[in-house]
Amino acid sequence: MSVESCTEFLLSTRDPGDLAQQLKAMTGLEEIVLLGRRNGYSFSAKELMAASASLADGAPAPARPGPPPADTSFLHYEYRIADLPGFEPVAAELPRLKIRPPSVDLAELAADFREEDMWSTSLSPADPRFRAWYRKATAEPARLNGSGLPVNRGFHLVNLDEHVAHPGYGDYLAAKNRVVTALERVFGGEVRFSGSLWYPPSGYRLWHTNEDQPGWRMYVIDTDRPFGDPAQSSFFRYMNPRTQEVVTLPESPRTVRFFRIEQDPEKLFWHCIVNPTDRHRWSFGFAVPDDWMHRLRLPA
Ligand SMILES: [Fe+2]
């Protein structure tokens, strides 16, 4: 195993082809390690991080995205997946994407639940109480997982792409690849997964900005069952960077949401996701082209 082997692998994925296409469906270290191994490259998750960092050092900075399509007060857009043209194949794959890998230890996840972390999502990121909590939380040393990598406290959920050692992974990966193909047809440009997340009951993603990955993001959201009471649902919450108004979006199954991640310190898009219900929630994130709305031929 070596960083050199990993660097060689990563460079080979820069050429258009099957490897590059498969990589668009992958966000987890472990599945990229597995993809490398299946193609004759041997490296660990730690070596993958080291190789990615060294390649990024020498690479030109990614182009900053252009301005939003219009100076609009809309910071998010939501649709029912059934209403989006060309999304039929994506909707059809949802049952194969919404997996619960048997390698996930839900009891261990539940033991990591922290009430004060969940509470932090009820505050505005502009609230001094949030700032104080955030400073304290980020100063605490991170716990290490079984691979010796730091556990990000901001995620109380399951990253499906970090679970490759279960019998269903092959079918799940094949479904992700088909979704990339379907979405590239819809958007007429490159689409890649940005995260495949399972939020079991009481799952959450704490306030964050994703400022290191600017651009438009699309999330396909679904649950195991409809919410009994629409007022008791999972939700997406964000802060309007201009007005500092906190907006909470109650969720329904089979929804597609778009929002834009900014890097400008004045425009950071603080957001969090909480599933305070007994339902299971999944969200599949994608980096989509800036002109996605035009591509979908939707009215702005
Ligand atoms: Fe995010």
Question: How would you characterize the overall build of this protein?
Answer:
The protein is of the alpha+beta class. The protein has two domains: 3-58, no CATH class; 76-106 and 154-295, Jelly Rolls, CATH 2.60.120. Helix content is 32%, strand content 20%. It is built from ten helices and eleven strands. The chain has helices at residues 3-12, 18-23, 29-38, 45-58, 88-97, 106-111, 115-120, 128-139, 169-187, 292-295, and strands at residues 76-80, 155-156, 158-159, 192-199, 203-208, 215-223, 235-239, 246-250, 255-261, 271-275, 281-287. The strands form two sheets. It has a six-stranded antiparallel beta sheet, with no helix packed on it. It is globular and about 50 Å long. Fe (ii) ion binds next to loops. Pfam families: Nif11 (PF07862). InterPro entries: Nif11. This is Nif11 domain-containing protein. Residues 1-48 form the Nif11 domain.
